User: Fold this.
Amino acid sequence: MARQLAGRGRRSRPAAAAPPVLAAHGLSAGYGGAPVVRRLDIQVRAGEVVVLLGPNGAGKTTTLLALAGALAPQAGEVHWAGSATAAPLHRRARSGLSLVPEDRSVIMSLTVRENLRVGRCDPALALATFPELAEHLDRRAGLLSGGQQQMVTLARALARRPTALLADELSLGLAPQIVTRLLTAVRAAADEGLAVLLVEQHVRSALTIADHVHVLRHGRLAWSGTAAEAEANRDAVASAYLPLA
Ligand SMILES: Nc1ncnc2c1ncn2[C@@H]1O[C@H](COP(=O)(O)OP(=O)(O)OP(=O)(O)O)[C@@H](O)[C@H]1O
Assistant:
């Protein structure tokens, strides 16, 4: 799969000078006063896919939540659309930030069409991303496969035409073919100008769509570089996953 995706005419890279849409500067965040992640510097620009990798418990979700405004920073700053912000998630969402949390947020008892409408999403826009959902529009979401449910979740997030998409383990528990489908849709949206920050466990798949990669280990950035550098330094990236001594 890696070859398939990588071989599909890679996009032109965003200009390095473009200001980040979303950035963490010296960001520390955690729960109950104790930091889980410390002094992180992460930037996401329009048209760019930034992937956050790391072992279980490294603090990837915590980072995503702090960047989204769902968790207040303990130190440092988050910049959104060019300014430092302490706005909560719902306000950032109104100004173009879309968060796809780890648990698929479909309502199982509603149909796909109803799920899209609850998310204020025009079904036609969702079908433009995932035409394969057309035959399921009037089925209850609970009857769909996990991959189809994740398509509904992602279609709903993308159809709001966000400026930035923050997604937590889109591929969790899904078959490789579906993972490819979802990540291809994310890459296509980035190529249209979306700024993307992905937390991913599927390292190989994630690298095929990434521009930049950060590896978190024990709450700190253990490795950062371009996707090409990550491919060329697999040992350094992999060592961040080794158990702590
Ligand atoms: N709501 C919470 N309250 C207290 N501690 C939490 C909370 N959520 C997460 N933690 C702790 O913070 C640490 C980092 O968790 P986090 O979910 O950010 O890591 P992760 O890298 O996303 O891991 P995983 O890949 O397992 O989801 C863990 O030790 C976790 O137990």
Q: What stands out?
A: Strands lie at 22-31, 34-44, 49-53, 75-80, 83-85, 97-100, 164-168, 195-199, 212-217, 220-226. Residues 2-9+18-239 form a domain with the Rossmann fold fold (CATH 3.40.50.300). Residues 112 and 137 are 5 Å apart (CA to CA).
